[in-house]
Specification:
The structure holds two protein chains of two kinds. Chain A is mainly beta. Chain A is 0% helix and 50% strand. Chain A has no helices and eleven strands. In chain A, the strands form two sheets. In chain A, strands 2, 4, 5, 6, 9, 10 and 11 form a seven-stranded mixed sheet that branches. In chain A, strands 1-3-8-7 form a four-stranded antiparallel sheet, with no helix packed on it. Chain A is globular and about 40 Å long. By secondary structure, chain B is an all-beta fold. Chain B is built from no helices and twelve strands. Chain B has strands at 3-6, 11-14, 19-21, 23-26, 32-38, 44-50, 56-59, 62-65, 75-77, 86-95, 102-106, 110-115. In chain B, strands 2, 5, 6, 10, 11 and 12 form a six-stranded mixed sheet that branches. In chain B, a hairpin with a 5-residue loop joins strand 5 and strand 6. The N and C termini of chain B lie far apart (41 Å). Classes of the chains: A mainly beta, B mainly beta. The interface between A and B is medium-sized, with 26 and 25 residues.
Chain lengths: 113, 116
């Protein structure tokens, strides 16, 4: 089954404690990205990757890091989480075309105390 | 910059009522337009899309037509069901020629509640 998986689905942590949210896709997609969803703001892109070892900032990259060492994986790293990073996070992937559908993971709900 | 504006919700309808959710956009270049749906506790799923002016996307009884002259992509369904209750997001996608970046720009979402 074609899918995007994320782990964990739910996470409660404290300010400053480093965390990683994993994302994996099995569709051999070149393009992957991370979004955060906040009430009234829709989804905003954090980082994206056009292929292995190629990553770049989206609209709201501050406080986040990513890496793309393998085509299927695209982890999101919060080196020192802060309460304003409490949000619902989605990973997405697609083949390299602006008209192609992006496939979303199930989401990770993060709470930073 | 690119932006998407959609009507605020919640929209509450009775089963079998007609649905319209308005969506307008501003974009540089020639965007593709999408409607995504998010059911409670789930990620976003593509509902329908249109890639050029005058295209009509359709799926599961939902339709939307890409109107370049009015920069709109309104979602419609003739007869809603309780199972259509969800949050609906209008979005556009363009490729940035300088960076190659492609991102979906989303509206803020419209919650639809269908009552039996």
């Amino acid at each position: 089954e074609a899918q995007v998986t994320q782990n964990p689905r739910y996470l409660i942590t404290v300010t400053g404690k480093k965390l990683t949210v994993t994302c994996s896709q099995n569709m051999n997609h070149e393009y992957m990205s991370w979004y955060r969803q906040d009430p009234g703001l829709g989804l905003r892109q954090i980082y994206y990757s056009m292929n292995v070892e190629v990553t770049d900032k989206g609209d709201v990259p501050e406080g986040y890091k990513v890496s793309r060492k393998e085509k299927r994986n695209f982890p999101l790293i919060l080196e020192s989480p802060s309460p304003n990073q409490t949000s619902l996070y989605f990973c997405a992937s697609s083949s390299d075309s602006s008209t192609d559908t992006q496939y979303f993971g199930p989401g990770t709900r993060l709470t930073v105390l | 910059g690119n932006s998407v504006t959609q009507m605020e919700g919640p929209v509450t309808l009775s089963e079998e009522a007609f649905l319209t959710i308005n969506c307008t956009y501003t974009a540089t270049g020639y965007p593709s337009l999408f409607w995504y749906v998010q059911y409670p506790g789930e990620g976003l799923q593509l509902l329908l899309k249109a890639t050029k002016a005058d295209d009509k996307g359709s799926n599961k009884g939902f339709e939307a037509t890409y109107r370049k002259e009015t920069t709109s992509f309104h979602l419609e369904k003739g007869s809603v069901q309780v199972s259509d209750s969800a949050v609906y997001f209008c979005a556009l996608s363009v490729r940035h020629l300088d960076t190659g970046r492609r991102a979906l720009t989303f509206g803020s979402g419209t919650r639809l509640q269908v009552q039996p």
